[in-house]
Write a structure and sequence with these properties.
The complex is a heterodimer of chains A (about 140) and B (about 800). Chain A has about 140 residues and is α/β, with parallel strands linked by helices. Chain A is about 30% helix and about 30% strand. The chains are: A alpha/beta (about 140), B alpha+beta (about 800).
């Protein structure tokens, strides 16, 4: 067997080990109710902001505290606490991806990813909104 | 209905040209395919002539399409959805081109333009390989131009026509009941360009990146033509092309990083976002391909891997296109395109089709002829350059595979219905692996050039490598020891790995520098490769140090009570936002920071905030101007652009995370209260304690006029949230006249006035308290320090320069040979 072949095999083995160990770090997409079952485990939620509930953020009091209620498509809801600034346009976003873990009664969020309406480029609804905001 | 003021002709011409260019690319591919197979020389020439003719038609159509889009957008013909959706009348003209890149079809058009340009350069420079390579490029053109068709075949929509009229695109919108809809204010104005793209990097980054994407088809095309014709001498003419492609793709990727750094509020230049990864991986495999290509040219080893790497590179470019444009990354990436469900299937199938059109035939030919591809049976020597170049290429390839696999979890989910999401610390998941890759690649970059092809005398190698090794060790040890690399958040192993990687990166720079002086005798003309390697080493050093030593300066420790701290750091998270009240100096670690004022620039519609940084030891004073821009496209809120202060060894980087404006007029009046020392007073948001009364205090002297006698109060104000503030209202007396020196606590919208002494014997005083209902202007800010980031940018420039030098040298050598 040639040296190169041995090295190729070693590199492949390392890559496989790396990828297998990566699967251990992976989290999962959960619904709010299934996330509640897995309290303390790091999960990813896809939800939107419940507009009927208050969104609490006051930079005067604390610029690193945001709390709101998230609602998922199955109707589950949970209070979210995020120790960072409020992402712009969060309420308008039709879909937010929340990463964090359930802690007692609330979801302790580490990261929020927004998908803004504008990113749905060809969505007639957003176009409709854009045109109508002209009325003002 | 007759609509008023529409311009239909440019769109009709445009759509016709889109179809024409599609048909022309089909014909060109066919003609070149036949020409490639034709043995008879005159017949072959006829086919080539014919193919060039149609390729010219195709090229002209594509440039004309581009011109028409520019025409429509710059004339604000908002009856076209493209123009309305991506531009506005108030948009600065310099962003006209960014409007085109913002659109899916616009960016495909850009890609197509580069294919045409590259095709003509190939026809000009590499006539021998014209038929085979241009055949492949035109197959690519068929795929890309189909994205601009926007026609329906059996009910499935193929591509998006950039010239579609808005009323045809969305016929159900009520505005089209109005024949004069173009005069509606929002239609007239335009939907504007996404604010994030209104940045100079966005004018230049996409063309460069797409040139990088497009150019990776050339090595693929050479390799494919090689297999079709069973000739392997393409490996020589391909080298300048592969070098060009690696340089431009690398530059394009790093320009994207610069854009992210300067204009997006991610807080950095690289986040291992899927979109970033998807373009990095083909660069890695391309660089691997270039190196094994050189190995083959010089020694005869590694031809198979050259084929494989070049094939896989372009396939990965197509895969990255699939990832970013199919909408599959919508939940994992910040900047992937998203597609609505209606178009999803069609685009999915189309993009997967592209990948297969290239991957399947290439792999079929490759494995069919694998045995016929010449190899050398004798093993490489351990002390040979080719051996270690091959190993380095393999490591790059494996790194690419690992990154790609991690990025592909959404594809995996789609295929197998799993629900895998990225890990908690996705960036670290990459960093902890790639730091080892950096280590190995840095080491190989340093050492390998000192080995000769075939075999090297050990003693000589040891002698030559000794001095650079010692120097690199001294430099990197001093960085590790005195540079303060204390990145221990991720444990000791990672910290050690970072320090070793810093050594190998420094080693790469030093050793290649010595190679230029020592082996090349300072002949810069032939030093292209070494210069590129120095640049690469600088990039590695820049990345390692700037990421390992990135520090949050806006660490929020001001005015927070113990109670709140425990609540705040529930997971030990950094509280990175700092609130600044207008004209109140706030403590931020090394600096006192003041939000001085803000102004709106009428030209670029941005609101600039002037933030003054004063080092506490008075060693430094500077201003930053981060800005925010009101969001457009039917959204509220704003998008923030950072601003940074550049030093040669670090950047101070700040951006606004939120702001509030005071627009309530102040109508409140003073309420007077009698107090004595030690008393507590309440106000709506907390309490204040009168600590003591001071006569003529030294620290208030600046507020006094000559001859005045003053009496000041020391008050401690504690808000409900537990923040503490000092207030010192006072009075100044000069003869019969009395002057109030009021004190304001802006953060609490509180004004305090020392009215008078009521009862001197009992120490009773009267204080006026005014609470204005208005909140004062405030912003929240994040500030980071990136050390040595300029090393990264400079490294990119050096690397690209090195590639340029190498390409120039090869072209000169070639023309010299011809003239001899």
């Amino acid at each position: 067997m040639k040296k190169t072949h041995i090295i190729i095999l070693v590199l492949i083995a390392i890559s496989i080990v790396v990828l297998i160990s990566y699967t251990g770090d992976l989290s999962t997409y959960e619904t709010i109710s299934s996330a509640r079952q897995k309290e303390g485990k790091f999960v990813t939620l896809i939800a939107k902001v419940d507009k009927k509930q208050p969104v609490e953020y006051d930079a005067v009091k604390n610029p690193n505290y945001l709390s709101f209620t998230a609602l998922d498509s199955l109707g589950g809801s949970i209070k979210v606490i995020y120790h960072n600034n409020k992402p712009t346009d969060m309420e308008k976003s039709e879909r937010i991806v929340l990463k964090g873990r359930v802690q007692g009664d609330h979801f302790d969020c580490k990261d929020i990813l927004l998908k803004c309406p504008s990113k749905y480029k060809d969505d007639p609804n957003s176009t409709q909104r854009a045109v109508q905001s002209s009325g003002k | 209905m007759n609509y008023i003021g529409e311009h239909l002709l440019p769109g009709q011409i445009g759509h016709f040209l889109a179809i024409l260019s599609f048909v022309a690319s089909l014909l060109t591919s066919y003609a070149y395919f036949i020409a490639n197979k034709e043995i008879d020389i005159s017949e072959r020439q006829r086919w080539i002539k014919f193919a060039r003719g149609i390729f010219a038609v195709e090229t002209i159509s594509i440039f004309a399409i581009f011109g028409l889009i520019v025409f429509i957008v710059s004339n604000h013909y908002h009856e076209y959805f493209f123009a309305w959706n991506h531009s506005s009348r108030s948009l600065e003209p310099k962003y006209l081109l960014s409007c085109i890149w913002e659109d899916q079809s616009g960016s495909f058009l850009l890609w197509s333009i580069w294919h045409c340009v590259l095709g003509w350069v190939l026809i000009w420079k590499n006539k021998e390989w014209e038929a085979g390579t241009l055949f492949v490029i035109n197959v690519g053109q068929v795929c890309i131009s189909s994205m601009l068709l926007g026609i329906f075949v059996f009910g499935a929509k193929i591509g998006n026509n950039p010239f579609i009229l808005w009323r045809e695109h969305m016929p159900d919108l009520p505005i089209f009941a109005n024949p004069d809809y173009l005069q509606l204010p929002r239609v007239h104005e335009g939907n504007d360009l996404n604010t994030l793209l209104q940045n100079y990097w966005m004018v230049i980054h996409p063309p460069i990146l797409f040139l990088g994407f497009a150019s990776t088809i050339v090595p693929f095309a050479f390799a494919f033509a090689g297999l079709m014709n069973k000739r392997h001498d393409w490996v020589k003419p391909v080298i300048p092309w592969a070098s060009f492609s690696a340089a431009i793709l690398g530059l394009g990727i790093m320009m994207g990083a610069a854009w992210a750094y300067e204009s997006l509020s991610f807080g950095g230049y690289w986040a291992w976002d899927p979109v970033e990864n998807a373009s990095l991986v083909p660069w890695l495999t391309l660089v691997a391909g270039l190196h094994v290509n050189l190995v083959y040219k010089n020694t005869g080893y590694s031809l198979r891997s050259t084929y494989f790497f070049y094939f896989i590179t372009f396939t990965l470019i197509l895969y990255s296109t699939f990832l970013t444009r199919s909408g599959i990354l919508a939940d994992t990436s910040v900047h992937a395109f998203t597609v609505d469900d209606k178009n999803l299937q069609a685009i999915y199938i189309q993009l997967i089709g592209f990948i297969l059109v290239f991957l399947v035939p290439a792999m079929f030919l490759f494995f069919k002829d694998l045995k016929k591809i010449p190899t050398i049976q004798k093993e490489e020597q351990t002390y040979s350059r080719e051996f270690w170049m091959f190993i380095g290429s393999l490591v790059l390839f494996m790194a690419g595979i690992v990154i790609s696999a991690k990025t592909s979890t959404p594809v995996f989910n789609k295929l197998f219905g799993t629900k895998i999401a990225p890990p908690e610390d996705a960036e670290f998941a990459h960093n902890q692996i790639q730091v080892f890759v950096a280590m190995v690649v840095g080491l190989l970059t340093a050492v390998t050039q000192f080995l000769k092809y075939k075999n090297t005398a050990k003693e000589q190698f040891g002698k030559k490598i000794l001095i650079p090794t010692v120097i690199a060790l001294i430099i990197s040890l001093s960085i590790s020891i005195f540079g303060g690399i204390h990145f221990d958040k991720k444990g000791p192993v990672f910290l050690v790995a970072i320090n070793i990687a810093i050594f190998t990166a420094v080693y790469a720079i030093v050793a290649n520098f010595f190679y230029i002086i020592d082996a090349l005798k300072g002949k810069l003309k032939s030093a292209g490769a070494s210069v590129a390697h120095i640049g690469f080493g600088m990039v590695l050093v820049g990345i390692l140090i700037s990421s390992a030593k990135k520090t949050v300066l806006s660490w929020n420790t001001t005015g927070i009570t113990v109670l709140q701290k425990s609540e705040k750091g529930a997971q030990g998270d950094p509280a990175e936002n700092l609130t600044l009240f207008k004209s109140v100096a706030t403590d931020m670690g090394k600096y006192m920071v003041t939000y001085v004022k803000d102004t709106i620039n009428p030209i670029d519609h941005k609101r600039y905030f002037e933030i003054d940084f004063q080092a506490k030891d008075k060693s430094d004073n500077f201003k930053l101007y981060p800005d925010v821009m009101k969001q457009n496209k039917g959204m509220e809120g704003f998008s923030a652009n950072p601003s940074s202060k550049h030093y040669w060894f670090k950047d101070i980087f700040a951006y606004i995370t939120s702001f509030q404006e005071n627009n309530v007029t102040d109508t409140a009046t003073f309420r007077d209260k009698i107090v004595k020392t030690g008393d507590t007073l309440f106000y709506s948001n907390g309490l204040m304690i009168l600590d003591k009364v001071v006569v003529n205090p030294e620290e208030q002297k600046s507020k006094m006029e000559p001859g005045e006698v003053s009496l000041f109060l020391n008050l401690t104000v504690i808000s409900k949230e537990g923040r503490k503030y000092q207030a010192n209202p006072g009075i100044a007396i000069k003869g019969q006249s009395l002057r109030f020196v009021n004190d304001t606590i802006r953060a609490q919208s509180l004004v305090l006035q020392f009215n008078k002494v009521v009862d001197q014997a009992n120490g009773k005083l009267e204080i006026g308290v005014k609470e204005s209902g208005a909140i004062t202007d405030l912003i929240t800010l994040k500030v980071y320090e990136f050390p040595l980031i300029n090393m990264l940018w400079l490294g990119v420039v050096v690397m690209v320069t090195g590639f340029g030098m190498a390409i120039r040298q090869r072209l000169l050598m070639k023309s010299n040979l011809k003239s001899v």
